[in-house]
């Protein structure tokens, strides 16, 4: 690997980001490392890259999301709701090349795909549930592929996203993970909630209909907010008992969140948390992926870091009871 490297998690890294306080215990003091999987049901991996979003015409900054999250998540309280022992921190993938010409660098995304697969594979085969934070939505493809191959069958995917990310098979980027996964037999059924009517092409809408994929529009929730709850419940009830499914939440979907495709009109943080809390209650859930946050300054880092920390805590707390 020349453009991306994997850095295993260390105790020093945990201590670097964890602020200790007398009389309290933080998540960073309890979380396991990948070298000592004792109680963990989930494995945490970070991806610090911006090539995928930039190759799709998005803003840079996705390389900063995982670091922002880690600082906030590790300093959550370890208590009866979430101890930290449920989770093992594997490490993070880091982009080492600053690509000047995005068009000629697109081929490097296949290198990233392979590295993500390589890192995840041993933990997937142990039956652990990956939580993948940061980078672009291009990383959905290797996650889906790795889990599908381990299960020896296609999986289902549910996504909260303004964009369906089913663009043409024109070379890998953050806008075509799900079409590549479907083309290669790794996705059985795809559901995407909250599409923006003006930001999905005729090609994508036709693609969703041709494949009989389920989708809803955020625009329809403006005059009928309760419709989102009904669609979310419908989606949950339609989850197959025969197949595993993954949860995707593109941070682009949340209004005013610093992301690769920033929007002032979208779901609020409570609706995003409701989405995670609802779907993670199903026992067939096999991964959580939170991509596309793109903080570029200290204020944005605080916003996105704490927001993602809430979403991860919600996922673990609800899924542990299944």
The CATH superfamily name is Ureohydrolase domain
Main beta-sheet strand count, sense and barrel state: 10 strands, mixed
CATH topology category name? Arginase, Chain A
Overall geometric form:
globular
Supply Rg.
18 Å
Can you tell me the number of structural domains? 1
Number of strands: 10
Strand proportion, as a percent range, falls in 15-25%
CATH class: Alpha Beta
Low-confidence stretches: none
Give the % helix.
25-40%
Mean pLDDT: 95
Distance between the termini: 38 Å
CATH architecture: 3-Layer(aba) Sandwich
Structure description:
- The protein has 322 residues and is α/β, with parallel strands linked by helices.
- It has 12 helices and 10 strands.
- Strands 1, 2, 3, 4, 5, 6, 7, 8, 9 and 10 form a 10-stranded mixed beta sheet that branches.
- The longest helix has 22 residues, at 298-319.
- It is globular, with a radius of gyration of 18 Å.
- The model has no long low-confidence stretch (mean pLDDT 95).
